[in-house]
Each structure stands twice: as structure tokens, then as C-alpha cells.
Design goal:
- By secondary structure, this protein is an alpha/beta fold.
- The chain has 29 helices and 19 strands.
- The strands form 4 sheets. The chain has a 6-stranded parallel β-sheet, sandwiched between helices. Strands 10-9-11-12-14-13 form a 6-stranded parallel β-sheet, with helices on both faces.
- α24 crosses α29.
- The N and C termini lie far apart (72 Å).
Length: 726
């Protein structure tokens, strides 16, 4: 149901944890802050009312000045989206001016509230408020909106090698994904609280906010993420819906007729509807209501707003979405009472926001004292937490030492089922999950419990049951990674990776240490047929910049691939890199390789490719293969003679990062007689065999039959490889 705010705000019998910062600001002095205050709602309301007019006036001024910053920056860039920054200005004023807990001097404070702009096209909303809230985004950077090397790119980008803008909690732009990122951040907070809080010391108790629009909710990923959030009772999550009835092409009614409040209620969310999404008091009351509801339900606040508010010529229409209102900016600024000076923020607004910062600083200072006491009493927990935040972990070599060598003919997914447990031991903050395929993916961490609420689950569990929600899994994993503490992995069939391709791309772009466990990797899937037999998918993942795709050939290569997935670049002879790793694993059994020692195979995997079989006469040919096809190459070499070299190449991108000397030692340029083999499309392999070389691949879809038959009929056999080489 939709709970009218007026009714919920007037309930006086309920007690709540009131934001002490808001109380301090309402009383006009940061020194009035008293941490962890609990008081009757009526008393809070009466205390706040005394100074409310002054606070409301300051917030209204700040909202209009935020509108001015957005108008000026978008006009200067001749590019951008005016609609949301103008239409949601009062929401920003309440969040940064009253309700959110943050410290701009310590923007990565672990217990800060998080804000995700799911509607990332409205990025000037975020940059304006971060600037006014005291983050290190100087006015020159606000003016530099959408310019090369600025801190204010077209869509928000999580700090990475390209942008280091403070206060950005997620890379957003693809609509709806930010909702899922916020769910992941809420997951991270729940898990951190369950893992690290003690009866004597609470160091995690923050909230996660997201702002979305109609477009975010039309994307199906929002449904997947919101359903998961309600089912797992993430009551630390607050979604503000900028409900302006507009999409880019048309008014929203042209493409939708659903009742969002009933939709959210059906998921299991608390719902508050604000008929005037510009009413500062109503927004504030709604947010505080949401913060106080520790009832196992996330909260959705539907804010009925006017898109492009302030530019009368386009306000309330789909024309306001982009930069159509730029030609009317000068007149709009005057109507808002802004001076002729562009990019104007008044001293009064800066002072008001500094009071908020001072109040938050008091909370931060108290937290640091609590943290110090917690650390002194919980040394082991503190080491785990601080190592996680610093991304400090064992080296790949140390992790591989924890994984025993094992001579076995088995599917690489089966190898992974044991190896993942050693990885979890090596990295206590490693978590995993599956889109309803744990039994097939074999990525369950034994003895680690299941994450969530009910059914024997807990928030300290390390195994996630995402349901049949690959896209939702992907965005939630990204959100967990944005949280900075836990290192997530998630699993599904390789062919279903396309369901979450968009979020895998963002993981690569944002340089997130996420890993994907993708099993049933080829036509070897067999009887399920071409709908479940990926032939193009591995190559489709390999073309992502910053995505390392590891397709190991046996148990030892799988051990190295898993170790690499959580250390990426640390001890591999390459420059330090970050970003996601895809582990591509077989359904069917593969032969244990014998061309070189187990340690040499592990070390070679860490370099992306290595010589598995060395020629014992003059070099006549090189066979290159990956994954389950390496066994055929090793067997073929025995028949082809002493002049045959076999190279196992589990990871193209990692091999490409090696030194020129190493690459020449593996693939000497003197030998142009090269054949590559993989049970997938052939295109990318020509980079390594050259135009004079040959690729034995599968450039068609498969068919339903037992896996050995699909392999035989489509040429994935030792015999066919020998024939192709001769």
C-alpha cells in the first residue's frame, strides 16, 4: 500500500532513532549534537519545529543555487541533462543538508552513508551537492563539466585510474543498474555489521540511498534487485523515486501505466508517497521515517516532482530531460533570484553546509573513538577489516601454496568446487553466489553459511542465493565491491553471462575486483543443445578492456586461475592492474596435463600462456589451445613428431601484458606454421596464428546430442587436429 506521509509523520506512540545531526541543525548549532539519541517522535517533531523556518529557508536557497550550478555547467558544456538536477534539487538539499551522514574530509570513511545516483545522466545534481557539501570538487571542476580530464565526467564514475572524484559511490549511467548497486551496498553494510560489530562496539550502522527515475524502473534489472532486497530484508536501504512522469522520447504515460506504489508494495517494500516532491519538510519527514524503520523492509519514497523545475518554458515536459532548456537559462536564473554571476553559491549556503559538516564531524569523531576501542578489543577482526579496506591480501604464490596439487581427470568446475574453499580461507572477506545454479556451478563455500534473512540464513553468510536473476546478481556484486570490504564472485552458466553483460562491462570500466565463475563453457554441454552451448560468449568477454578471461585446461591451471582472480597482477610479472576476472570452466571431464610439472603449469597460467610441450627437434609447428582443447593438443603432439610445440593459452589478455622477450620465447616469430584450437568462434585466435596460420574452431551453433558426439562432429578431437596440422 501507499502510506500517506501525513499519517505516518503524526504517529506519536512510535519511538525512533532520530538523526542527531538534523536535530542539531534544526536547533541552529552543531554543538547540540548528542549521538545515538532516542526520543518520542512527537518530541522530535516539536523540537525541530522551533527553528524550522530558518532551516527551510537555507535549504530552499541551497536548492535554487544547486539548480543554478547545473544550469551554468550544462550551458557551458552545451551538453548534459537539466531535468533531474533541477527537478530533484530539494531532495538533494534534504539529503546533504540534513539527513545523510558523511565526512567530506574523509570521503572513504567506512561507516558513511552511501548515495547512488541511479539516474546517472543527471550527474550535475551529484557534482553540485558534493561541491556544496565540502568535498574536494572545487568550483573550477564544476565549471569543467564533461571536459577531458575533469573530475566531473558526463556520468558519475567510481574512483579509478581515469577519475578520482570523491563522493562518487558507483559508476552509473545504464539505467536501473544503480538501484542494484545500492542493494549491493546495503548487502555490504549488513554483512559488515554482522561480521565486525560486537555487543560492546557498533562500527557499522549506516544507510544507503539511491535516486532513480522512471527509466530506471522500466529496466528489468530494477525488478530483480528490488525483489532481492525485500526478500533479504535490507531495511538499511532507501530508494527515492524522482517521479516526474517523463521519459526522453515522450511523457511516461506513452509507455507505462503501472502503479509504482503497488509494485513496490508487492515486492515487500515500505512505500511513502509525496504528492509534492519539492516540499522540504515532507521530504525530510519521509527520509527520517525511512531511517527509523528497522522493520525488515527497505523503503521507497515516491517523490512527485516537476522535471526541469525553474525553467518554465520546458518544466514538466520531456523536453526538459536534456539540454533543450539551455536557451532559457538566463531568464530562469533571474526568476530563481540568482545573481548575474554564473556558478553562484552564497556565503550563507556555504556556512549552512559547514554547520552540517561540523555536526557530521562530531559523529565521525565519536565513531573513531568507538573504532579505536573496538580495535583494541578485537585485534583479529580489525586485521581482517583493515586488510580488506587496504586491498591487502596474500600473493598469488602464497594462495597457490594453500591449494594442494592433485592429479585428477575431472571437469574444471569440479576442480573449482574444492579450490574455492582454499581461496575463501586465503581471503576471509571473499564471498560467492549463484543464480540458482550452485549444484551445477559447484561454487559453494563449505561451512561459510548463506547470506540473508530466514531459512537458516544470516547476514554473515558468505554464500548468496540470487535466484534466477543474473543481471540482478551482476549489479549487486558490483555494489558489494563498491562497498570496499568484501570481494564478490558470482556464478551461472557461461551462456547466460549475456544476461549480465552490461554490468560486467561496468565492472571492467570501474576496475572492480569482481570475479565471475562461468561453467558449462562450450558445445561440450551436450544434450541441452545450442540454447545452452556457448560458442561466441568467451570471445565476447575477451574483447572487454580490463576483463581478464581465464579458461583453464586442468586442475592445476584452475588453481592458478582462481588465485589470479583475487590477486590480479600482484605477482604475475605484469604491471599492477585491477578489474574483473571471468573463470571459464567445463561441464565435462578433462585430462590432467603432463607436458610440464604442475608448478610450471600454475606459473605459466599466471602469465596467460606458456609452453606445455617443448619440441625436441627443430621447431616445425606450434599448436595453441585453451581450456578443454589443450588435452587434444597435448595428445596430437605425440603423433605429430618431435618438432611440435604446444602452447596452453588460458588467458589472452594476460599473455598480451607480458614482456616482448617472454612472448617471443613462447611464440617465436621464426615459426609461422601455427594452428590454434578452441571449441568456440575462431576470430580472435588469428592474432596469434597470423594470416598464414589456421584455427580449428566452431563458427556455428551446436546441436543437441551427448557432448562427446558434439565434439566429434564439430571437429574438437585429437584426430581432427592432427589432420588439420598435416
Amino acid at each position: 500500500y501507499t502510506r500517506p506521509l501525513a499519517q505516518s509523520a503524526l504517529r506519536t506512540v512510535v519511538t525512533m532513532k532520530f538523526s542527531a545531526v538534523v536535530l542539531a541543525l534544526a536547533l541552529g548549532a552543531a554543538t547540540a549534537f548528542v549521538p545515538s539519541t532516542r526520543m518520542p517522535r512527537a518530541a522530535v517533531k516539536m523540537s525541530a519545529t522551533a527553528a524550522a523556518p530558518a532551516v527551510e529557508s537555507a535549504l530552499a536557497t541551497a536548492a535554487n543555487e544547486a539548480r543554478g550550478l547545473a544550469m551554468d555547467s550544462i550551458a557551458a558544456a552545451a551538453s548534459g541533462h537539466l531535468g533531474l538536477p533541477l527537478g530533484a534539487a530539494e531532495i538533494g538539499a534534504v539529503l546533504w543538508g540534513q539527513s545523510m551522514m558523511y565526512n567530506p574530509d574523509e570521503p572513504t570513511w567506512p561507516n558513511r552513508d552511501r548515495f547512488v545516483l541511479s539516474a546517472g545522466h543527471g550527474s550535475m545534481f551529484l557534482y553540485s551537492w558534493l561541491h556544496m557539501a565540502g568535498y574536494d570538487i572545487p568550483m573550477e571542476e564544476v565549471k569543467n563539466f564533461r571536459q577531458w580530464h575533469s573530475q566531473t565526467p558526463g556520468h558519475p564514475e567510481f574512483p579509478n585510474s581515469e577519475h578520482t572524484t570523491p563522493g562518487i559511490e558507483a559508476t552509473t549511467g545504464p539505467l536501473g543498474a544503480g538501484i542494484g548497486n545500492a542493494v549491493g551496498l546495503a548487502v555490504s553494510e549488513k554483512m559488515a555489521a554482522a561480521t565486525f560489530n560486537t555487543e560492546d562496539h557498533k562500527i557499522f550502522d549506516h544507510h544507503v540511498y539511491a535516486l532513480c527515475g522512471d527509466g530506471c524502473l522500466q529496466e528489468g534489472v530494477s525488478a530483480e534487485a528490488m525483489s532481492f532486497a525485500a526478500h533479504e530484508k535490507l531495511d538499511n536501504l532507501i530508494l527515492l523515486f524522482d517521479s516526474n512522469d517523463v521519459t526522453l522520447d515522450k511523457m511516461a504515460e506513452f509507455t507505462q501505466s503501472e502503479d509504482h506504489a503497488q509494485r513496490f508494495d508487492a515486492y515487500g517494500w515500505d512505500v511513502i508517497t509525496l504528492t509534492d516532491g519539492h516540499d522540504l519538510k515532507a521530504i525530510h519527514a519521509a527520509v527520517e521515517e525511512a531511517k527509523s524503520n528497522n522493520n525488515g523492509k527497505p523503503t521507497a519514497i515516491i517523490c512527485k516532482t516537476i522535471i526541469g523545475k525553474g525553467i518554465d518554458e520546458v518544466a514538466g515536459t520531456n523536453a526538459a530531460h536534456g539540454e533543450a532548456g539551455v536557451e532559457f537559462v538566463d531568464g530562469a536564473r533571474k526568476s530563481l533570484g540568482l545573481p548575474d554571476e554564473k556558478w553562484h553559491v552564497s556565503d550563507d549556503t556555504y556556512s549552512f553546509m559547514k554547520e552540517k559538516q561540523a555536526a557530521n564531524k562530531a559523529v565521525y569523531d565519536e565513531w573513531t573513538e568507538t573504532y579505536a576501542a573496538w580495535k583494541a578489543a578485537n585485534g583479529d577482526k580489525a586485521t581482517i577489516l583493515e586488510d580488506a579496506l587496504a586491498k591487502k591480501r596474500k600473493s598469488a604464490a602464497e594462495i597457490m601454496d594453500m591449494i594442494p596439487m592433485k592429479e585428477t581427470d575431472e571437469a574444471t568446475r569440479a576442480s573449482g568446487s574444492t579450490i574455492i574453499n582454499q581461496v575463501s580461507d586465503a581471503l576471509p572477506t571473499y564471498v560467492s553466489g549463484s543464480a540458482d545454479l550452485h549444484g551445477s556451478n559447484k561454487n559453494y563455500i563449505k561451512g561459510a553459511g548463506d547470506f540473508g534473512s530466514g531459512f537458516g540464513k544470516s547476514y554473515s553468510g558468505k554464500n548468496f542465493y540470487y535466484g534466477i536473476r543474473e543481471h540482478g546478481m551482476g549489479v549487486i556484486m558490483n555494489g558489494i565491491s563498491y562497498g570496499g570490504i568484501f570481494t564478490p564472485s558470482g556464478a551461472t552458466f557461461l551462456v547466460f553471462a549475456d544476461y549480465m553483460r552490461a554490468t560486467m562491462r561496468i565492472a571492467a570500466l570501474a576496475e572492480l575486483p569482481v570475479s565471475y565463475i562461468l561453467t558449462h563453457d562450450s558445445i561440450g554441454v551436450g544434450e541441452d543443445g545450442p540454447t545452452h552451448q556457448p560458442v561466441e560468449t568467451v570471445s565476447g568477454l575477451r574483447v572487454f578492456p580490463n576483463m581478464d578471461v581465464m579458461r583453464p585446461a586442468d586442475y592445476e591451471e584452475t588453481a592458478a586461475a582462481y588465485a589470479y582472480s583475487i590477486t590480479k597482477g600482484m605477482a604475475c610479472g605484469t604491471v599492477q592492474t585491477t578489474g574483473p576476472v571471468s573463470l571459464i570452466l567445463t561441464r565435462q571431464n578433462v585430462k590432467y596435463l603432463t607436458g610440464v610439472s604442475p608448478q610450471e603449469r600454475r606459473d605459466g597460467t599466471m602469465k596467460g600462456a606458456y609452453t606445455l610441450v617443448k619440441e625436441t627437434a627443430d621447431l616445425e609447428r606450434i599448436i595453441i589451445a585453451a581450456g578443454s582443447e589443450v588435452q587434444f593438443a597435448e595428445a596430437a603432439a605425440k603423433e605429430l613428431g618431435a618438432g611440435t610445440r604446444v602452447v596452453s593459452m588460458p588467458c589472452m589478455s594476460l599473455f598480451d601484458k607480458q614482456s616482448a622477450e617472454y612472448k617471443e620465447s613462447v611464440l617465436p616469430s621464426s615459426c609461422a606454421n601455427r594452428v590454434a584450437m578452441e571449441a568456440g568462434v575462431s576470430g580472435l585466435w588469428y592474432k596469434y596464428v597470423g594470416l598464414e596460420g589456421k584455427v580449428v574452431g566452431v563458427d556455428r551453433f551446436g546441436f543437441s546430442a551427448p557432448g562427446d558426439i558434439t565434439f566429434r562432429e564439430l571437429g574438437m578431437t585429437t584426430e581432427n587436429l592432427i589432420a588439420e596440422c598435416q
